[in-house]
UniProtKB/TrEMBL annotation:
Heme b binds at H217. It comes from Arabis alpina (Alpine rock-cress). Substrate binds at P187. Its main location: secreted. Gene3D superfamilies: 1.10.520.10, Peroxidase, domain 2. Removal of H(2)O(2), oxidation of toxic reductants, biosynthesis and degradation of lignin, suberization, auxin catabolism, response to environmental stresses such as wounding, pathogen attack and oxidative stress. These functions might be dependent on each isozyme/isoform in each plant tissue. One of its GO terms (biological process) is response to oxidative stress. Its EC number is 1.11.1.7. PANTHER family: PEROXIDASE 16-RELATED, PTHR31517. It holds the Pfam family peroxidase. Residues 47-343 form the Plant heme peroxidase family profile domain. Keywords: Calcium, Disulfide bond, Glycoprotein, Heme, Hydrogen peroxide, Iron, Metal-binding, Oxidoreductase, Peroxidase, Secreted, Signal. Its cofactor is heme b; Ca(2+). This is Peroxidase.
Amino acid sequence: MAKTYSTRVLTFLMLISLMVVTLNLLSMAEAQNKKKAPRKDVPVVQGLSWSFYQKACPKVENIIRKELKKVFKRDIGLAAAILRIHFHDCFVQGCEASVLLAGSASGPGEQSSIPNLTLRQAAFVVINNLRALVQRKCGQVVSCSDILALAARDSVVLSGGPEYAVPLGRRDSLAFATPENTLANLPPPFANASALIKDFADRNLNVTDLVALSGGHTIGIAHCPSFTDRLYPNQDPTMNKFFANSLKTTCPTANSSNTQVLDIRSPDVFDNKYYVDLMNRQGLFTSDQDLFVDKRTRGIVESFAIDQNLFFDHFTVAMIKMSQMNVLTGTQGEIRSNCSARNTRSFMSVLEEDIEEAITIL
């Protein structure tokens, strides 16, 4: 009788344990789905959708994330590099992968422009590798601009940042921007809050979007020449003196080739410590520190420094908005087979374009 009772108790306990494990797994799955649920408070541009590849390439997001987990395990610095490429793409001509194009006979590509010279070439290789993996699985149906947008999202998530859904359906541009256009459209590190507020407003991004997107500097590095104007010949009075002395050790001259982490507290983790840096006057760029100096943005910086979840929520909204700037959709542009080059056109397609152009001129 005792033996039977023990067996029943053991069976009962095992069932309870199984139920607990099952409930935990369901809870985790529900939480994951909730995190990935589309934001209803962010409008989606016509031509994009939250389920664009549901039939054509349903596993595209899994393919990209699985590969990036391997990549970041080897080099977490590539997460910040990919995120930066996405910013630099969207701010010049829109989120249409023009920054991925190599130069051609028509001129140098965007990567040759001064603000893009420090973009990591290894990150471009990663994007092209993702292109090959996705194409092998689904064919030539997913654009490079969508791959870049998803890779930027995963760079945030795999560094400890928030999970969020990305509207998809972008097409790739047929041309890159000129060096002049690239330089004119990328906010420089020496820009003050007033210039940044106007620049972002021109792109339909508000002050909160500005401060939230600047939080991308919670990961990554910067080269000395991008901030040594705050050290030489005169030190910026808004900079913490101990921090300045540390930077002078890293960058003994204004044109030093050394690098400095953007967030001194947790440089490889996507968190809200960037805003803590700003409150301690340890922001690296003028464009960073002035967000705490300027009264219009200071309160937002403080609120993000205090509440990481608040920062994550606003960063998610700002990223989704930014990733839809001036996108190409439908029959616009193309879907590149190689992210660094336009698709090869047939002789007949070139001839047809020439004929259409001639007719237009006439």
